Amino acid sequence: GEEMAALMKEYSSEYLGVCLDFGxxxxxxxxxxxxxxxxxxxxxxxxxxxxxVSMTPRGLLLGDVVLGDGVLDIQRILxxxxxGGRNPELSLEMITRNALxxxxxxxxxxxxxxxxxxxxxxxxxxxxxxxxxxxxxxxSLSKEERVSLEERNIRRCLDWAxxxxxxxx
Length: 169
Fold this sequence. Notes:
Oligomer: single chain
Helix content: 25-40%
Number of helices: 6
Distance between the termini: 26 Å
Strand order of the largest sheet: 3-4-5
Largest sheet: 3 strands, antiparallel
Radius of gyration: 17 Å
């Protein structure tokens, strides 16, 4: 988040900006709201989604879930984006897939971020404790069942957004 904000401060223009994904930076142990606040002035589009996080013996499990079912405060994120002043396009990103394993307990992961402390990990784990990722069952589903589940999840996201998101142009 901090690195992208610095790049945007240097290079941003009315034609160049950020496509802000609401949940991806959890895998980098960033506070989602600090990332949104830092990048809001440069955000021109979004990947609006919700996430859940759990600990595993090897690290974090990060899963995409239906809007409103995760740990992200979508309303808070939208408020921060409004304050950023760019009025970004909101695009739904609902991926029905097995949760991703982020190997935050390996030394190789931390080699990428030598200046970061375990406090960031603790904060993400604490956030995830509110609503942990549920064990995945997607591998046992047929292709038709997966397609049906994906469609249900997208419809649930759209229903949630139509009830909860009042985005003003």
